[in-house]
Amino acid sequence: MLSPGATDPSDRLSRPGLASAVTAYVLWGTLPLYFLLVAPTGPFELVAARVIFSLVFCALLLTVTRAWKPFITLLLTPRISFTMALAGALIFVNWQTYVYGVLTGHVVEASLGYFINPIVTVFLGVFFLREKLRPIQWISVGISIVAVLVLTFAGSGVPWIALVLAFSFGFYGYIKKRVGPRVDAVAGLTLETAWLMPVAIVQLVVVGLTTGLTIGTVSLMHTALLAGTGVITAVPLLFFAAASRRLPLVWMGFIQFFAPVIQFLVGVLILHEEMPPERWVGFSLVWLALVILTADMAITARRSVARRKKMASTAP
């Protein structure tokens, strides 16, 4: 019980938590530049390498931290193991779509997917968790739908890369919530990539028999960069896990926009992707929806904290 005037621990802003969150999302935001460095590797070989080297890196982490025993326990728990297999399938779709978008000059559209992801998550909560939205949240969802329609009919077609990214990551988050804190970041990624290993091997075989593999044939630096995809996949997840344990959910909600903002800037300022007027209108509508949704989250969280403090101060 809090004494009158005491500060709720959830209100305290952890500097290490803040630094971890910013680091995670900045790393995710700059991923397009890393993936472009591994040219001429194609999207299918790149994602296969990402799966394999992520599993290798996670195995090393489990060895260093002596966490194999709890991991094996999770692996032998059917409900958790098969749930993580489904999560792996969703993150595979997400990775493959994202890498394809980056390597084909659609970084801006990929950033759109992560801009609308919070709105998609709210939308999924209505259908799968029977959550009730406040009127202001419905307004945000409605504006985002209008934005997608603008980008579809006034632009160059359905922004399918953005939609696949948003929904695959939204469902991925929903699946991960089902296992909760029982599966930490490293164990989760290890399980997911272990399930994806057969798919990655098949992809490598197909690429090898068709266009030919690039790993080990371009340069030593190129091979090192491909191997490094395991590190750049796992490290942001570890920072994210550290941040999520230390920061209030509202702060995580604010900071998550670092990644798509950086991706958008990379696409426009560095890669010089086209931004015709209708695209600016569509993105502006998405940003407006996010401002409304984020403001509503912040106000609701503040009222909740104030209510808890009031109850604590009046308790006997």
Strand content: under 5%
What's the alpha carbon Rg, rounded to whole Å? Answer: 21 Å
Mean pLDDT: 85
Shape, per Cα inertia axes: globular
Given the structure, what is the number of helices? 14
Share in helix: over 70%
Q: SSE order, as H and E?
A: HHHHHHHHHHHHHH
By DSSP, the count of extended strands is 0
| Biggest sheet architecture | none
Helix- and strand-based class? mainly alpha
Family: Belongs to the EamA transporter family.
Main location: membrane
Protein name: EamA family transporter RarD
Membrane topology: Multi-pass membrane protein
What keywords describe this structure?
316 residues; mainly alpha; 14 helices; disordered N terminus; transmembrane helix
Note down, in words, how this protein is organized:
- With about 325 residues, the chain is mainly alpha-helical.
- The protein has one domain.
- The protein has helices spanning about 15-30, 30-35, 45-65, 70-75, 80-105, 105-130, 135-155, 160-180, 185-210, 220-225, 230-245, 250-255, 260-270, 275-315.
- Helix 3 runs antiparallel to helix 9 (about 185-210) and helix 5 crosses helix 9.
- The longest helix has about 40 residues, at about 275-315.
- The protein is globular and about 65 Å long.
- Residues about 1-10 have low confidence and may be disordered.
- It is found in: Cell membrane.
- This is EamA family transporter RarD.
- One of its GO terms (cellular component) is plasma membrane.
- Keywords: Cell membrane, Membrane, Transmembrane, Transmembrane helix, Transport.
